[in-house]
User: Which sequence fits this backbone?
């Protein structure tokens, strides 16, 4: 009897050991599946991806990043504010791994949905939110404003420049403040006209604001932070001789049909989105902000039009180096 019991115990031990060894296989399989999985990313936008400005640049950044990292892409554009959360929720329900919201205006909708989908990852451009499944991508608004303002101050012949914002977001207000400070640093006689469109998609409003600034305040150089509204402003500028625009976030001189863009402050959103994708793949996503500035190459000067004189170009590039070093404007 004792011998039989001993045999039974030995068999039980062997079964337990074999079972324990086998338990590692699902983990190995899961790791392999993670490597071979096709990930999916979607972007939402209140403007259209054909706006020739912000939404187009952000969509192209997502596509570029996805191509390199092997993600499938999808998008929903032309959304009203009331539809942000539902659109995000739909992608979460469809099993998308990463949802890209390219603007601070989506913050509330992202936070609302993210808490219900802890396994879905959210990238919020110009955001200030950090949670387990939300990462903010934050280009340096001060540097962007300073880069645009310095060039506007150097290029203006009337000593009047303009700024159009979409909404009164914190990042937009920082850009405006830095834009004005930089312009006055290179030209103390500069006056800055500014307005908010109350929209990122109202092209006609952009035309209206720009025409008013040009005819009433003699504005001859403009910079915008308003997506499709900026496209409308460029259309207005095209109807007035010797008026110019500074674009963002992509290199708009290469694609500008209006002929008024003299340069751009280029934000490498693709690099920041790639970093998010890496974290999704490697299981390290969340609780961080990914910053973009001149120092790390996520901000740069775009192609400069031949309308910018060589001496102005040289002086401007020297100023950009000072902005990079933090010595241009004393804080």
Assistant:
């Amino acid at each position: 009897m004792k011998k039989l019991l001993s045999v039974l115990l030995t068999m039980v031990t062997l079964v337990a050991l074999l079972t324990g060894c086998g338990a590692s296989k699902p983990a190995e399989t899961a790791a392999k599946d993670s490597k071979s999985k096709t990930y999916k990313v979607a972007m939402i936008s209140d403007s259209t991806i054909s706006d020739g400005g912000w939404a187009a640049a952000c969509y192209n950044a997502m596509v570029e990043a996805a191509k390199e990292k092997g993600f499938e892409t999808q998008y929903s554009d032309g959304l009203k504010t009331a539809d942000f959360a539902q659109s995000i929720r739909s992608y979460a329900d469809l099993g998308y791994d990463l949802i890209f919201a390219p603007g601070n205006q989506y913050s509330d909708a992202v936070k609302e949905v993210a808490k219900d989908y802890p396994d879905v990852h959210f990238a919020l451009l110009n955001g200030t939110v950090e949670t387990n499944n939300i990462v903010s991508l934050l280009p340096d608004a001060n540097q962007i404003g300073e880069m645009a303002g310095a060039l506007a101050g150097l290029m203006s012949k009337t000593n009047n420049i303009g700024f159009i914002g979409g909404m009164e977001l914190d990042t937009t207000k920082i850009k405006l403040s830095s834009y004005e400070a930089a312009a006055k640093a290179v030209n103390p006689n500069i006056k800055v006209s500014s307005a908010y469109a109350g929209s990122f998609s109202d092209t006609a409003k952009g035309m209206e604001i720009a025409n008013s600034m040009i005819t009433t305040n003699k504005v001859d150089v403009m910079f915008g932070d308003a997506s499709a509204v900026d496209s409308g402003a460029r259309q207005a500028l095209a109807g007035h001789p010797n008026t110019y625009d500074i674009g963002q976030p992509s290199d708009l001189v290469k694609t500008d049909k209006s002929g008024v863009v003299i340069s751009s402050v280029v934000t490498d959103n693709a690099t920041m989105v790639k970093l998010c994708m890496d974290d999704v793949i490697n299981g390290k996503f969340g609780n961080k902000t990914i910053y973009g500035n001149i120092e790390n190459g996520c901000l740069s000067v775009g192609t400069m039009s031949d309308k910018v004189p060589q001496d102005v170009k040289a002086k401007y590039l020297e100023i950009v180096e000072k902005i990079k070093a933090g010595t241009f404007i004393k804080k």
